[in-house]
Each structure stands twice: as C-alpha cells, then as structure tokens.
Write a structure and sequence with these properties.
Layout lengths: L5 H23 L24 H5 L2 H15 L9 H4 L2 H23 L2 H27 L3 H19 L12 H22 L7 H20 L15 H22 L4
Helix pairs in contact: 1-3, 1-5, 3-5, 3-10, 5-6, 6-7, 6-8, 9-10
Length: 265
Amino acid sequence: MPNRSIIFKIPLTVAIVSMALLFVALLGQWMGLPGMNSEMFCETFRPGLIKQPVNAWSNLAFVLAGLGIGWLQSRGHKKGHRNPFTQTRFYPTFFATVVVLLGPGSMAMHASTSSISGFFDMLSMYMVASFMFSYALERLLHWKPTTFLICFVIALTLCIIIDRGKVDFSIGMFPAMILIFGLYIVVAGTTELYLVFIRKTGADARMALAFVGAFALAFIIWLYSLTGEVLCDPDSLLQGHAVWHVLNAVSLFYLYRYYVSEGQA
C-alpha cells in the first residue's frame, strides 16, 4: 500500500491556504461591500472584519471534520474493509478536502455578507452534493476515478450555471439551485439504499442513519433559528445557525464512517 500521509497533508494544505486567502480577501475587501446575505440568519450584524462572528467561527467545525477524516484515513484501515475509501488515496483525500472547504466557503458569507461571498457559500455546498451524487454512481456502476471526476465536474458545473441564473427551472417557491441540489441528494440517497439493501455491500447502515439524523436535527434548528423565528436571539453567543454548522460537520463525519465501513468482513 502506498504511503497514505497525503490523505491528511492535502486537506491540511487546502485548509491553511484557503483560510489565509479568506482573511487576506476580507482585509482587502476583495469580496466587495457588506450586503444583505446575513439578514435571514438572525445574528446581529457587527462592525469590524467579521460581521457575524458566531456564525462565522462555527464553520471551523467543517475544517476540523475534514482534517479528522484525512488524519484517520492516512493511518490506514482495519482488515476486511475493502472499498474505494480504504483501497485508494484518491477518494478519502477528495472527500476530506471537500469537507474542509465548507468551512471557509460558509465563513466567507457570514464574515463578509457580500454577494460574491454568498456564491462561495453555495459553491461549497454544491461540491458536497456533487461528491455524494458522483460517488454513489461510482460504486453503483463500478467507475474508475477518472469517470467519477468527470461526473463530479459536470455535476458541479451544472450547479454553477444554474446558480448564476443561466438556466432556470424554478417550481413555485423552490428556486432552481435548491432543486438541483435536492436532486443530487435524492439520487445519492436512493442509490445508497440500493447498494446497502439490494446489492448487500456490507456498509454500516447505522452510520447512514446517524448522518441523516444529525442533518435532520440541524435542519430543524436552522429553520427555527432564522430571523424572527422562535429560536432567534440576535445578540446571543449561542446562535442556532452556528449549531446548524456544527451538526452538519458531525453529519458529514458520520457519512465518512458510512463510506469507510463498506465491505466489512
């Protein structure tokens, strides 16, 4: 087995570089003037470099989760676990890096609140959905990493095109960018159900349930912590939206545990 330290080193490098670039961008006001992007997320808009400090700093949970995934996978795996996460360096490195990038992506929006920072926030979410979608199809169709990467790039590009308003298939109150994000998650989830219960891949379904449970709880807290909702206290150091960030980081760690459990003896 080749040296697996790269699985940790690449996400670590990405974390350092992306966080450094974010703060340079904030200092130089490269992302533009503060905008309206933070108004729905309850926390009081504050003067200074970080406009919503609690919501912003809570995104470090994603960075820690991604680095934790990279660290654990760099140390190897237990005998009997044979799957793309344990037999290659590509997939765990890719996933750990995507999780890390959620941190500075969302932090940019809460720190700056500008229009372009909102795009980086959505971009990081699109990357996670595109990974889940492409990795589910990879295992369903026995793709090689090159095919997975092509699928990921196409899926992510489609999200960006829709986000930029180049294509619009909105339905009622649901904008097109939410629909495409949801479509990827539904396809990924349905495929995972098939892999676990029909193909019998041996993955630990409890980890999948923990992922879904943590995300569902996070979504409920997110919903009731929006500005004006019952859990919203603009001046509190405990922000529901920050809890949403932390619980989502936890859910992605459970997703990693699900991926790596596949093929247990």
